[in-house]
Amino acid sequence: MRFILIGFKSSGKTTLGRSISKNLSVEFFDLDELIEKKYSHDNGEIISFREIFRRIGESNFRNLENRLLEEYISLDSCIISLGGGTLDEGRNRELLGDCCIVYVRVPIEDLLVRIEKIGYPSYLDSSDDPEKELRSLFSIRKSIYEEISHLVIDNPNSIDFEKLILDSSRKISNLMQNNESN
Fold it and tell me: Of 16, 68, 81, 125, which is most buried with the most CB atoms under 10 A?
């Protein structure tokens, strides 16, 4: 079974995905990291997915993202963490039909604290009010995340992360077992 972790930027999808995959002995892929590897392989330059977005533009970035998602979604059993904006593309949502979608939910106030520590996303480079735009984008994406998810994992700043990993691993393991018995 394929598990897809979705959620807004800085929701903890990658950290959670890595930990759960270790607990369940399931392969883990982070779509942003796959983009970086592909770009590095094709261009001989190691740069972050944020810089790739800046250099090649949103349209080319989304095309690359879509090709990689299509490639890795074909694996039988894995956990894939998507970028916060991957689901903005309807073609990417269509690829997830046979997958279990796990929404890593974080309150917007907690997300803003996390994002301010690492910097605003590259698509807000020219924004006069990046916080306002993030809040607006969060509102739009949140409804998509809620609509397509099969399981919600809450990851607020106040959570005990070790307990979150154990609880999340248990929930996903139960889903895997239920799927195998059907």
Answer: 81
Low-confidence ranges of the chain (pLDDT < 50): none
Length of the chain: 182
The pTM assigned to this predicted structure is 0.93
Dihedral, 10, 14, 16, 20 alpha carbons, nearest 10: 170
End-to-end CA distance of the chain: 12
CA–CA separation, 128 vs 141, rounded Å?
21
Six token digits for residue 9: 């930027």
Residue pair 20/165 in contact (Cβ under 8 Å)? The answer is: yes
Pairing of strands 100-105, 78-81: unpaired
Distances (CA, A) of 123 to 26, 93, 126: 32, 21, 8
